[in-house]
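Quick one: structure tokens for this chain, please?
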Amino acid sequence: MNADRRSEAVLITGCSSGIGRATAEHLAQRGYTVYATARKLDSIRDLEAHGCRLLALDVTDDDSMTAAVEAVEREQGAVGVLVNNAGYSQSGAVESIPMDAVRKQFETNVFGLVRLCQLVLPAMRAQRFGRIINISSMGGRLVFPGGGYYHATKFAVEALSDALRFEVKGFGIDVVLIEPGLIKTEFGTAAVGSLAPASDGPYAEFNHAVGSTTAGAYDNGGLARLGAGPDAVAEAIEKAIRHPRARVRVTASARIMIGLRRVMPDSLWDRTMRGNFPQPRA
């Protein structure tokens, strides 16, 4: 491919709400060619009015991912910027989550992200330019009780991005991790909704507390006051496209919590968590 005609087209996953939707609108308004995607096109139909091109894309379906990338490459030559945003939080005690739900969490948050990277890289390498922007979380650097599987996926995204950043840099491709703190979207509501219904099991009180604490954090907790709206992440993504860095923390909550976790020994972190969550016990 002629380097003078390189594609800088942006493909974004998970645009039906929150960060993905805000990023699609933000980048389209600033002149980027944006392909906004979601599993159901009806959920993003209005983004056409903001200048976005729409594609159906399910990050748990290989054929769907392949078709979306091929569609962009037919029109633009390559995906210039991939924003891996699709994801959700499966909450609850590790023992209490069915394995089907665990697999779905990893398929959405990790395996789909990896597969899309594999699909866009050949054309990025051919044009010697590309940006892969992976939406991680402050939860990729620390763990709250009741979020083990979600945090595990974000730790995996961090590790994979660190490896990939080294592997593709020589081809003119940059990999950026965006690490948001608390972002005021429907994410918290979905996380609470993923909890198993209250029961008499050994984790009933714990799971209830996880739901209450999560809901409170998004509604009026201390982290909410240190959070931001999805537009803050959209702006960080635009800056990362223009000036790539390995990691970009978004919101004061991310900067503070990651900093605290770095200096706190495990025993002190666990003691702090016991002040916010009841510890399951016999």
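The chain is about 50% helix and 10% strand.
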